[in-house]
Amino acid sequence: MNKTKLSIACLLTLSVLTGCSKSSKSSDEQIVIVTEDKSVAVSGKAIDGYIVGGTVFLDINGNGIADASEPQKITEEGGDYLFDVPEKDAACLAYSAIIVDVPVGAIDEGSEEEGVARHEVTDPYQIVLQPTFEPITEADFTNGLVRNISPLTTVIWQAIEQNYPREIEEKHCDYLKEHNEAVTELKTEIEDTLRGLVSYYNLSAEQMYADFIADKDSDAFHIAQDIVKGLKAAYKLKTELRAEYPEGEVRVFVSRDQEKDEYFNVEDGWYRDVVVFHDTGYFSEDVKLVSDEQLNEVDYVLTHLDRTDKAWNDQALNGELSVRKDVYRDPNGEYRCSNIERIEFKENDIRYELSNSFGSLTFDTFEECVNDSLDDPYERSFRISYDIDSTYYFGVFFFREAQSRFTELAEWVDVENKTDLDSSEMIDVLKLMPYRWDDEVSIDTSLWRKRKDQGNVQLDVENGTDWTRATTQSDGTTVYECSADGENWTSCEG
Questions:
Q1: By the 8 A CB rule, do 264 and 304 touch?
Q2: Do residues 302 and 278 touch, judged by C-beta distance below 8 A?
Q3: Which of 1, 56, 255, 350 reaches 20 to 30 Å from 419, CA-CA?
Q4: Shortest CA distance to 161 belongs to which of 256, 97, 117?
Q5: PROSITE patterns of this UniProt entry (predicted)?
Q6: Is 442 in contact with 464 (CB distance < 8 Å)?
Q7: Residues 29, 123 within the same domain
Q8: Is the sign of the CA dihedral 424, 425, 431, 435 positive or negative?
């Protein structure tokens, strides 16, 4: 037993264990009542119908899995849950999503008012509540927090992850606590996404976060039931892909999409978007699904991108070669396939990239759309990026046949087997570009862009006459301003 502290358990057994008292032989012992660390009680409901037997957890590391070290609890009758988040993890309630794993065998209590009977879950899925990014206060330790989780809250976070993809480590609570710029971007994305979903579903923001069963909100209930169809289909494929790519990052989204309906002339379609990052690159695929009753069956592919990365040439300069093969479906049903080759080196913390874009071939079907050509680019670009005093910069310059620089580095096309190319040749050419923020661009290009990203302000300029300034406010919102000269600014909306 510690000479200076005795546990509170010792006090509780004082009448039996006399050695716990101050009169024991160890007269130098001092009794100190050690109280438990304070914690935040988080309670709420898991709602589809109310879910019984789901595992609700605080996803501190952002991997979407209920790890043993993360606060968690099984949901009970009425979808109720209550778990305590210890003080050491309490700050993560602001930065981490709360997720409910709904397994096969869980109970969905349904809704008597809506004619949906209590039933057993036969297809697993997850529902999610996005981070609030609101700091935890002393009052939260006293009063606790209430967090309801439903398909409606899930679709908000799903849209964020789809439109604002991040590396897995950037989803960790510890990362977000240290990167305010990422938090402000996410807060802005959440606000923008919520506005779009409110308009799309014709529900208020309050309805999106409410207990629609207790409120007897029929519209919200049926929208939630529709969303769950997509969540189940996405979860099934995500589980399969995680098994295939155990070390990869897998994202799967299944939903309706009004913009795609309009572009592809589809009536009330369902779509699936898949992205998998693995150790040699990534692939993404967007498809139209057959129907809401056949969400595991593909009707046709809309886009398919497949990029392969490999170490190449001078490894002292982190040489890398990437080739991306793209396939796109046009509204008329034809498919276009094209390729992009990118060569990259890093010298003295400056990144130099040469990209070759190749023309597309057109085919009647996705299966036929194969284009292996890397020998005749229609566009080339030189991109240089770097950091100075926590400010990120890049300059990128595009050239086509009309520009003389299009033929520079002529041998640097289809380079995979050109092992004798000298990295310094490419770097020396790119160094001559006017890539610094204040450099005047007088070279002939088809297009050029520059960016300066400093703190809460991001400046972009295109061709010297099209300026955009994005300023992130203290409340997380972003103000967008436009200019023709970089000096006189007006609202981009005006």
A1: no
A2: no
A3: 350
A4: 97
A5: PROKAR_LIPOPROTEIN
A6: no
A7: no
A8: negative
